[in-house]
Amino acid sequence: MYLSVARNDSASAAQWGDRGLRYIDAMKPANDEERSAHDIERVEIVTIYGDPARILPQLIASERAVPNDYNASLRVAQMEKAAKLR
Hints:
mainly alpha
């Protein structure tokens, strides 16, 4: 994705991002730590290139699954803010 973005190749960056998100979405986290790792990767992918609103449903589900983890809420807030800036 980084290389595609550096080359101003939006189509390729979008394809790599889609591929990464599909891969993550296909995995079921075994525990809260894995859930958090998946969410971190989702945010990273979308931050490089993508639509933050696309991952909000997964992040909100994680926030509900681990209500005592402030990082889950932080990721939701960051992506909600990013989605509104687009």
